[in-house]
Write a structure and sequence with these properties.
single chain, 259 residues, alpha+beta, 2 domains, four-stranded mixed β-sheet, 26% strand, elongated
Amino acid sequence: MELYGIPIPITNIPKLDPGFIPIGLFNRAFLATAKKPLGIAVERADGQIARVDTFIHGTPDQAAADTYYLDRLVKTLLWMKGGFKVYVSGDRAMYEYLQAAFADGGSRDFDFHFMANVYERPFEVVYADELPEEKDAPQAIGGHLEGCRIGFDAGGSDRKVSAVVDGQSVYDEEVVWFPKTNADPQYHYDGIVAALKSAAEHMPRVDAVGVSSAGIYINNRTMNASLFLQIPKDLFETPSGISPSRWPTTATCPPWPAC
């Protein structure tokens, strides 16, 4: 099989989608003949940088293959690591393509607006003679069992909460709720508080709360989450009251269980 002039050996052709080509096989075949160095770096919160040093062909006859490869590489980096600024080095033509694709009205218009909203900064693609170095800020979490702790799973169809004392569960609860279809943030607030209070009532105190929920959380702020799909943008971004965009990811409302 061939895609954009790149021959790709595929052993098993899926009957329901005979034209399907796994991206991993395409990348492997593409890089086998690509020799021109090119670098991509993506900047996210707190100056963190994800960087990939790779290769393209850099010739007119392979331009379609190069853009296909880089388009998906950048999109993958954005959704694996997150980011609001893409650095490109090594090829001006590929930089111009990515700048046009990841732009308002471009082929990656959704990514452009989504990431700008998440990071509250304009999304941009820039050319760099030298890429910034990789930079991560890992944080050690978990492993703490002592004391009175609450574990809360804020799911999209039900919510689960457990009270744990010195590593042993003393209470757990699962409640069906519908946060993804409710537009009033009071519904979400009431449900979360009810879950935390139900667990707190089974312990003498609360030392810590751990929350699990699908979405993007940066510096203890909910930037985008499936729980709040129907919350109007103006309410989500309200800087006061019970706006979910200002809720912390850990509960800080002692004395328990009165909060």
